[in-house]
Design goal:
Elements: E1 2-6, E2 10-14, H1 16-21, H2 25-28, H3 50-68, H4 72-84, H5 97-104, H6 112-116, H7 118-126, H8 131-138, H9 154-167, H10 176-182, E3 183-186, E4 206-209, H11 214-232, H12 235-254, H13 259-263, H14 267-275, H15 281-288, E5 294-300, H16 306-309, H17 313-327, E6 335-337, E7 350-353, E8 356-359, H18 360-363, H19 365-377, E9 379-384, H20 389-400
Antiparallel strand pairs: 1-2, 3-4, 5-9, 6-9, 7-8
Helix pairs in contact: 3-4, 3-9, 3-10, 4-8, 9-11, 11-19, 17-20
């Protein structure tokens, strides 16, 4: 058994297959992949990694399995998947995933090949575990996979409290101990009458919160909603992420580096690669020195035309070129950042109320309010070097069809988000 002192969960005891997985190269690489990517440019202490998060997810999964009375090979599979759930992440975590997915067709949870080969595959087979089955659990497939990859999974429980701790903001606090105590699995037959259940749901037992825990589930949504604007989508983090995505795209176009190779880099590998590439050296310098592009446009959801919301990456690139031409600046001095449509997957979590299993969105009036808040927090960004922001902003307004009087909404630094804003 291995005992690790953790900032969030105190002592984590690691045993069995998980203990043998810890020192594999795939897990150790995660020591060099930051959990929050570029958020450290806003919160300097946000330097925690995917490795320590993986330990936390394993810890919470083990606690939940003990509570649920799941043991033997079934528990080994869940614990292995919990420890390995992030090994498919590329540099700067989710930040480059949209780019690598366009070029490889794979997301970070597509880890079949990674788990079947090398030291990880050897460890799994030594413990009589099928790597393909573990990869399926990581992707949310199969019985009990919802504990690792679902609406109430231990992944969310750990990253919210860990991100809050390392950024110093008070909004991600949830009662993880109560969460794991109140989780239970119900058989598929018990879910037949749950509104909205369809063939897209996973087969087998499904994870729900036990009777009287609507507020426990709501706390997860509230924590996520409060962390979103002040941490995950902070404008400085968004600008720096967009600059690194641009650098990654140009690196792939200008060098022999493939998207598959990029997926297996860590943060240091990637930064070294863009420093060493002529086409990306300026973006690298700007990131290293925190000499970031500035906001030219920061537009609310309802102010953005539908055609822009629906634009794919090729259309966004064409719009960037058009904005640059209209502003009279170099094409690489304009970055258009259109976030995905607002979603709230956690709202479909199931809770038990008066002996009936219900979707949280049906039971909780808070879900509707948080959906509204999420839409209100959404922003389209157009970024440019500081001397050109006014020209780029007005050009972007013309090209995108925005109201020029609202190009940059007020951005308040270090301002707490409170419940009355919802």
């Amino acid at each position: 058994m291995i005992t690790v002192k953790d900032t969030v969960h105190d002592h984590i005891e690691i045993d069995g297959v998980a203990a043998d997985l810890v020192d594999t190269p795939a897990l150790q690489r995660l020591r060099h992949v930051k959990q929050l990517g570029t958020v450290q440019l806003v919160y300097p202490s946000a330097n925690h990694t995917r490795f320590e998060h993986s330990l936390g997810v394993y810890h919470l999964a083990s606690r939940a399995l003990d509570h649920l009375g799941i043991e033997g090979k079934r528990a080994d599979r869940i614990e292995a998947a919990a420890m390995l759930h992030d090994v498919g992440h590329g540099p700067f975590s989710h930040n480059l995933e949209s780019l690598t997915h366009r070029r490889t067709g794979k997301y970070h949870d597509d880890v079949d090949e990674l788990l079947a080969t090398g030291a990880v595959g050897e460890v799994l087979r030594d413990h009589d575990l099928d790597p393909d089955r573990i990869a399926g659990i990581v992707a949310g497939e199969g019985p009990y996979a919802g504990l690792v990859s679902g609406e109430l999974d231990v992944d969310r429980m750990d990253y919210l409290v860990r991100d809050a701790y390392h950024t110093g903001v008070p909004y991600g606090t949830i009662d993880t101990e109560r969460f794991v105590r109140e989780l239970t699995f119900v058989e598929e037959a018990d879910l037949d009458d749950v509104p909205g259940r369809d063939g897209a749901d996973r087969d087998g037992p499904e994870l729900v919160l036990d009777e009287g825990n609507v507020q426990t589930a709501e706390s997860l949504l509230l924590a996520r909603a409060l962390m979103n604007p002040v941490v995950y989508t902070h404008h400085v983090a968004r600008i720096s992420k967009a600059m690194l995505r641009r650098a990654a795209s140009e690196l792939l176009d200008a060098t022999a580096t493939t998207a598959t190779e990029l997926r297996r880099m860590d943060d240091h590998d990637f930064l070294a690669a863009i420093r060493d590439c002529r086409e990306t050296v300026e973006l690298s310098r700007r990131y290293d020195e925190r000499d970031l592009y500035k906001l030219a446009v920061w537009a609310e959801y309802d102010d953005v035309p539908e055609r822009v919301h629906e634009a794919d990456r090729a259309a966004e690139t064409a719009l960037e070129r058009e904005i640059a031409a209209a502003a009279g600046v170099a094409r690489d001095h304009v970055i258009l950042d259109v976030p995905p449509e607002p979603t709230m997957r956690e709202s479909t979590a199931r809770v038990t109320v008066n002996g009936e299993i219900r979707r949280l969105e049906r039971q909780s009036p808070l879900v509707s309010a948080l959906r509204t808040a999420q839409r209100n927090q959404w922003r389209l960004g157009v970024y440019a070097p500081e001397p050109a922001t006014d020209r780029v902003g007005h050009a972007a307004a013309d090209v995108l069809g925005l109201d020029p009087d609202g190009l940059v909404a007020e951005v308040r630094g270090a301002m707490p988000t409170t419940l009355d804003e919802f």
